Amino acid sequence: MNFQEFIKNGLVRKASPDSQLLQSLLKVIDNDLSFLETVQITELSARKVIGNYYDTLREILEVIALKGGFKVYAHEPFVAFLKEKGKESIAAKFDRFRILRNSINYYGASISAEEAIIYKQELLDLISTLKKEL
Question: Among residues 76, 56, 41, 70, which one has the least CA distance to residue 130?
Fold first, then answer.
């Protein structure tokens, strides 16, 4: 499904950028990243840590979409949003983590601490790349 179809289906709506909301979201993102850096990845914490890094990545995409005049009400439209902006590689990586997060949250999938360490770095790389657009 392309981005325009998500708009037609109501999963994305046009919105006016709200500078106070954007600033608030950016502060939440920075606070979350600071907190996550203090959490040690263990077998017990791995799935939650990765889920929270994914949520931070998604929040950055929310800010970018809002700045562009869109409010997104689901995770999958962000893939189409990124593709429409010509960011195919980032879209594919985001979608991979979206699917991983869904597997963890909805199907009880587990990940090892070793996998989580690798995923964390990949997520941080994506976050860093996207933060440059803020």
Answer: 56
